[in-house]
Design goal:
The chain is mainly α and about 220 residues long. The protein is built from 10 helices and no strands. The protein is elongated and about 65 Å long. The termini are far apart.
């Protein structure tokens, strides 16, 4: 009986050594790798839809090779990956990182356009995000002033039109809300904002808001 106990303990100890060795080897294998290794791994993860893992791999690339020429491309790939998954907050995070670090790159107009697009696509609720609307309008105005010959200008113009439609609709809704609450002066101010917009409110199609959300809009 004693020999069986000793044998079992020996087997357990041996297994533990193998497990620890395997973990140690795996950890060592994931450090101090060339930039191309991290970049290729990230690309493979994105192609498989593993965006969380790709985020972690980018962190390794950026941490170990901060000045790698792969960094700008990796950032844009992550931006587009997260936008495809409608994860606009994460897309904006990477766009802000790109603008902060590579604001003088020749393709910065494309990145600024993506920032505008990510904000626009991020309007999940029609009558919330008023500040985001205003911020995006400012970004569009800056883009139109700084990148007049950009090939992305027609796309920005299209977003601009839809943004102003959203803002006019929002101002009109706020006016009606204040009117229902008896706040006539506030209702008048927002009504004038909506009417003074170049957008024709009659041409704006009402958004079909689901019942469970309409209670809170």
């Amino acid at each position: 009986m004693l020999n069986k106990i000793k044998l079992r303990n020996l087997l357990l100890a041996t297994c533990a050594v193998f497990v620890l060795s395997a973990c140690s080897s795996k950890s060592e294998a994931e450090y101090n790798k060339p930039a191309l290794y991290w970049y290729n791994k990230m690309m493979k993860q994105i192609s498989m839809g593993e965006l969380d893992e790709a985020d972690d791999t980018y962190t390794s690339l950026e941490s170990e090779h901060r000045n790698s020429p792969y960094i700008p491309t990796a950032l844009l790939i992550l931006v587009n990956g997260h936008m495809d998954e409608e994860e606009y907050a994460l897309a904006n995070f990477y766009l802000d990182e790109y603008i902060k670090r590579f604001g003088l790159n020749k393709d910065i107009d494309y990145v600024r356009y993506l920032k505008i697009k990510a904000n626009f696509m991020g309007f999940k609720y029609q009558f919330r995000n008023q500040q985001l609307l205003d911020d995006t309008i400012v970004q569009i105005e800056n883009f139109k002033r700084q990148y007049q010959n950009s090939p992305y200008m027609p796309l920005v113009d299209t977003i601009n039109t839809r943004i102003y439609m959203a803002k006019a609709s929002l101002d009109n809704e706020i006016s009606e809300l204040y009117e229902r609450r008896g706040k006539e002066e506030a209702a008048r101010i927002y009504k004038e904002r909506a009417q003074n917009s170049w957008v024709d409110l009659d041409e704006i199609e009402k958004v079909d808001v689901p019942l469970h959300r309409s209670l809170f809009e």
